[in-house]
Amino acid sequence: MVTLSQATLGDLPAEVGRPAYDRSSVTPGIVHFGVGGFHRAHQAMYLDALMNEGEALDWGIVGVGLLPGDSRMRDAMAAQDNLFTLVVKHPDGHLEPRVIGSMVDYLFAPDDPGAVLDRLVDPATRIVSLTVTEGGYHVNQVTGEFDANDPVLQADLALPDNGEGMPQSMFGFVVEAARRRREAGVEPFTVMSCDNLPGNGDVAKKMIVAFARLRDAELGDWVEANVAFPNCMVDRITPVTSQDDITALADTFGVEDAWPVVCEPYTQWVLEDHFPTGRPPFEDVGVQIVDDVVPYELMKLRLLNASHQALCYLGFLSGYRYAHEVAQDPLFAGFLLGYMEEEGSPTLPEVPGVDLNVYRRQLLERFANPEVRDTLARLCAESSDRIPKWLVPVIQANLEAGGQFERSALVVASWARYAEGVDESGEPIEVVDRHKDRVMAAARAWPTDELAFLRDSDFFGTLIDSEPFTTAYVAFLKSLHDNGARATLEDLESNR
């Protein structure tokens, strides 16, 4: 057994890939907020690939953790010299492990917020990247404006400009660092959002500028005028690392890694080229550099991400627990393809260079990969951040255009049924959502108010005012209670 560290890289089995470059020559150029599985399977992987080609050695990543739970990542990375194993899971059962070395440091902000600020202010830091989840941008779902009500944000807004006091949030760190760089005459960094949001760079810019203006109007204007926020689309299914994954890496390859990351073979990154202070040559390792990311973003959000929501609640209620189980079921596969073809795709602009027929079929194949073992519980989590961004716009567009929306209505009804917190066997469901109490209360009110779930305009906008949609929703919700998820789905598909 080899315990992963810089000193043991040479002891790894031959079939385990490892950095071909001298990690001591890698210097920081990127600070990343939100080091989870996806970042490590995607951005960190692309940079490691560049470094293996002898490029981007001045673009090492310094990870930053903000939340109490991030102390676990701090400890894992510290023990392993910031190395981790990326395990690609192929559909035939083949595992492809590779040690990633592009992360050069990990800072747990509560330990030393000053160290985080110092790194952000350092002229060598030219990109600040983000995977802080959809909810991490604090967007009011109705108005689209910045919601500053979070107590941590309020504390950061109250910080004095004399350097006393330290920020706690991503917003606080980014804006304070921008202020200090301006005062020191250091060029501003580029902020690169890698979250699943339409126009993620535009959203990051709008929210960060709004935060900066609340702190100092003139500073906000400066951030808006001087900080670049490129849009990008990112894609790689990356389930939560399980103990089985850790054990399999040890048993199969003899590698002891406290926190490896597993993913599917497929990966995509479409990036807008807007980096005034430079960027790594990502195009050399397959990143698509384009002028307009929006068509690719919408394709991914409305087909892949929305389809994940289409399968997760109905699948869970039907007794499945993994995405591949659902996608391998012909009934569900037909439902998903029908949603993508007849509801999701008609709302998309032209996507240059993409054959949507091929893309849709490819998605079903990816969902059905039995080795990835993506849990439905993961896909069902934080629905109040996901459904409003991924599915509600599809429904609204189809209602306006006179298009189909019935399958989407069933997805919303299945979320409501799932959010009641009890499955069809009477067993409890652990609902994971930052608005859990609010969502569950609305879902459980259906016996006395069948539209209670739709009344939350923060999540559904004006959908409750659409009689065709509410009629379909109510009928599906009733059937889910009376007949169950599978029978409801069978009835819908048999009548298409």
Describe this entry's structure for a reader.
The model has no long low-confidence stretch (mean pLDDT 96). Strand 4 and strand 5 form a beta hairpin. By secondary structure, this protein is an alpha/beta fold. The chain is built from 21 helices and 13 strands. It folds into two domains: 289 residues, Rossmann fold; 201 residues, N-(1-d-carboxylethyl)-l-norvaline Dehydrogenase, domain 2, CATH 1.10.1040.
CATH architecture of the largest domain: 3-Layer(aba) Sandwich
- CA-atom Rg in angstroms: 23 Å
Question: Which superfamily, in CATH terms, is the homologous superfamily of the largest domain?
Answer: NAD(P)-binding Rossmann-like Domain
Stated plainly, the CATH topology of the largest domain is called Rossmann fold
Strand composition percent: 5-15%
- What structural class do you assign from the helix and strand content? alpha/beta
Q: Which strand order do you get reading across the main beta sheet?
A: 6-3-2-7-8
State the separation between the terminal residues, measured CA to CA.
56 Å
Largest sheet: 5 strands, parallel
Query: Which shape, going by the Cα principal axes?
Result: globular
Domain count: the total is 2
The total of beta strands comes to 13
Mean pLDDT: 96
Helix proportion of residues, in percent? 40-55%
Number of helices: 21
Q: Could you list the spans in which at least 5 consecutive residues all have pLDDT below 50?
A: none
In CATH's first tier, which class of the largest domain applies? Alpha Beta
Domain Mannitol dehydrogenase N-terminal: 29-283
Catalytic activity: D-mannitol 1-phosphate + NAD(+) = beta-D-fructose 6-phosphate + NADH + H(+)
Pfam family, one: Mannitol_dh_C
EC number: 1.1.1.17
